[in-house]
């Protein structure tokens, strides 16, 4: 099958997408925008697409999820094409690496180990395997391998989780709550007496400890904040709807009225 036939063959699978990507990057006949891109310029789109996948799942928008997963897959294909052009690796290398990793990390499925383990034991085994992989990559420090490009709240959670594995952790959630109280007091003091940079530092400390509290409570902070964002959006849109029923917009209202409508929206949700 010729390349042009493959591109227009709707029954073709991943090979069709790989060929489309190669054509988009062709220096002579490709798309000027795609040709100009590099890893750094595409990375923000990759992050954005991952969040759009999470958003579709959060909203249970299953029809949208298919397209969002396709967008995320295309990001992997884009990076792999650029890597192939630079002589680093190919898409097939990416597939092979992931397949090998999944097989090696699941000896209870693909090897001789017993599946008669608790989920907790399997998690411990998983972490032990990953630790051995990090050692093989010459990652010696406890925090090595926690990606710098992660969203800050998620990275805080992962850094604290990694440190806890070696015993650097508060004994209980009560200790974390006490630390939050301390950080809040420091933030209030900083607000009144310190520079903006120092206030920002104290605020960052508070967020960092809040992430740790989530870990102690078994709550993933990034997911919790996404849920809180969704709840706020839903309720504020409810306030806007109630204002619209009165022939008003938020800018035509005031805090007292909107706060009362907010309580009404909350009551409606509980009803």
TrEMBL record:
<dbReference type="GO" id="GO:0046081">
    <property type="term" value="P:dUTP catabolic process"/>
</dbReference>
<feature type="domain" description="NTP pyrophosphohydrolase MazG-like">
    <location>
        <begin position="175"/>
        <end position="236"/>
    </location>
</feature>
<dbReference type="GO" id="GO:0006203">
    <property type="term" value="P:dGTP catabolic process"/>
</dbReference>
<dbReference type="InterPro" id="IPR048015">
    <property type="entry name" value="NTP-PPase_MazG-like_N"/>
</dbReference>
<dbReference type="InterPro" id="IPR004518">
    <property type="entry name" value="MazG-like_dom"/>
</dbReference>
<dbReference type="GO" id="GO:0046061">
    <property type="term" value="P:dATP catabolic process"/>
</dbReference>
<dbReference type="Pfam" id="PF03819">
    <property type="entry name" value="MazG"/>
</dbReference>
<feature type="domain" description="NTP pyrophosphohydrolase MazG-like">
    <location>
        <begin position="37"/>
        <end position="110"/>
    </location>
</feature>
<dbReference type="GO" id="GO:0046076">
    <property type="term" value="P:dTTP catabolic process"/>
</dbReference>
<dbReference type="InterPro" id="IPR048011">
    <property type="entry name" value="NTP-PPase_MazG-like_C"/>
</dbReference>
<comment type="similarity">
    <text>Belongs to the nucleoside triphosphate pyrophosphohydrolase family.</text>
</comment>
<dbReference type="GO" id="GO:0046047">
    <property type="term" value="P:TTP catabolic process"/>
</dbReference>
<dbReference type="InterPro" id="IPR011551">
    <property type="entry name" value="NTP_PyrPHydrolase_MazG"/>
</dbReference>
<keyword id="KW-0378">Hydrolase</keyword>
<dbReference type="GO" id="GO:0046052">
    <property type="term" value="P:UTP catabolic process"/>
</dbReference>
<dbReference type="GO" id="GO:0006950">
    <property type="term" value="P:response to stress"/>
</dbReference>
<protein>
    <recommendedName>
        <fullName>Nucleoside triphosphate pyrophosphohydrolase</fullName>
        <ecNumber>3.6.1.8</ecNumber>
    </recommendedName>
</protein>
<dbReference type="GO" id="GO:0047693">
    <property type="term" value="F:ATP diphosphatase activity"/>
</dbReference>
């Amino acid at each position: 099958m010729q390349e042009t036939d493959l591109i227009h063959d709707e029954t073709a699978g991943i090979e069709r997408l790989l060929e489309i990507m190669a054509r988009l990057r062709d220096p002579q006949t490709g798309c000027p925008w795609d040709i100009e891109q590099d890893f750094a310029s595409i990375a923000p789109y990759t992050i954005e697409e991952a969040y759009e996948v999470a958003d579709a799942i959060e909203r249970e928008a299953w029809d949208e999820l298919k397209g969002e997963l396709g967008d995320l897959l295309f990001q992997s294909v884009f990076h792999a094409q650029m890597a192939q052009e630079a002589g680093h690796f190919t898409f097939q290398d990416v597939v092979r690496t992931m397949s090998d990793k999944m097989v090696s990390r699941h000896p209870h499925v693909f090897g001789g180990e017993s599946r008669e383990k608790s989920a907790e034991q399997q998690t411990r085994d998983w972490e032990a395997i990953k630790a051995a992989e990090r050692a093989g990559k010459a990652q010696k420090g406890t925090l090595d391998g926690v990606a710098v490009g992660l969203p800050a709240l998620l990275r805080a959670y992962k850094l604290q989780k990694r440190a806890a594995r070696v015993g650097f952790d508060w004994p209980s959630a009560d200790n974390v709550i006490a630390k939050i109280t301390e950080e809040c007091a420091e933030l209030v003091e900083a607000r009144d007496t310190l520079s903006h940079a120092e206030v920002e530092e104290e605020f960052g400390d508070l967020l960092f400890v809040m992430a740790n509290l989530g870990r102690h409570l078994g709550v993933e902070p990034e997911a919790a904040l996404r849920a809180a964002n969704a709840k706020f959006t839903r309720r504020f849109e409810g306030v806007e709807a109630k204002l619209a029923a009165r022939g008003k917009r938020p800018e035509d209202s005031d805090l007292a009225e909107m706060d009362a409508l907010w309580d009404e929206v909350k009551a409606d949700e509980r009803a």
